[in-house]
Amino acid sequence: MALLVGVTSTLPAILLCLFRLALAKDGPDAWIAMRLLGATLALTPFYLGLFAGLPVCLGSLTSRSRAVQYIWAGVFFFSWILGESIATASEEPMVALLSLPTDLLLLGQYFYGVEPKYSLPVYYPAGALVGAIALGIWLLWRRLEQVEIFT
Fold first, then answer.
1. Alpha carbons 122 and 103: distance in angstroms, whole number
2. How far is CA 142 from each of CA 39, 45, 52, 61, 115, rounded to the nearest angstrom?
3. pLDDT tens column, 15-41
4. C-beta of residue 96 within 8 angstroms of C-beta of residue 84
5. Which of 4, 57, 70, 105 satisfies CB 3.0 to 4.6 Å to 136 for a cystine?
6. CA-CA distance, 57 to 146, in Å (whole number)?
7. Domain coordinates of the chain in residue numbers?
8. How far is CA 21 from the centre of its chain?
9. For residue 26, with 0-12 CB atoms within 10 Å meaning exposed, 13-18 middle and 19 or more buried, which class applies?
10. How far is CA 69 from CA 2, 75, 114, 120, 145, in A?
11. What is the pLDDT of residues 50-101, one digit of tens each?
């Protein structure tokens, strides 16, 4: 599953960067394409952790795969709605960090050199994403400690 997520989330951007590199007319244009390729590769661990790692960690809560899909969809979309709506209503950018999709968006905007939607340092959305992934890993670790092995 992680391989599929990694391929579908980064392969289109990598192919576009390589295409732009092939069409580069001079050194500075090639350097821009290489920087974009580096930014795409830097975002890959965040995509893998969020879209492949967290569902696996949430899967440790129940044996029913359908329930895990509902839990993950709820966590992802509820955080998006909650974070964005409160940040928009209160004009407080820190609240937007509650939104996992917004964290990915901000991190991508920083890495690709686009003006970020909220004026927050780059380590805030990165820290929020790492924190969410670490929470999932901790949850999985706690569940694995409770497993009894019969020999």
1. 10
2. 34, 23, 19, 10, 40
3. 888 898 888 888 888 888 888 888 888
4. yes
5. 57
6. 14
7. 43-145
8. 25
9. exposed
10. 15, 10, 32, 31, 23
11. 887 777 777 777 777 677 777 777 888 888 888 888 888 888 888 888 888 8
- Residue whose token pair is 């937007």: 96
* DSSP per-residue string spanning 69-119: HHHHHHHHHHHHHHHHHHHHHH--GGGGGG-HHHHHHHHHHHHHTPPPSS-
Structure tokens at 109: 């905007």
**CB neighbour class for 25 (10 Å; exposed up to 12, middle 13-18, buried from 19):** exposed
Cβ-in-10-Å burial (0-12, 13-18, 19+) of 46 comes to: buried
Which conformational region is residue 91 in: left (phi greater than 0), alpha (psi within -120 to 50 degrees), or beta? left
CA pair distance 21, 79, nearest whole angstrom: 37
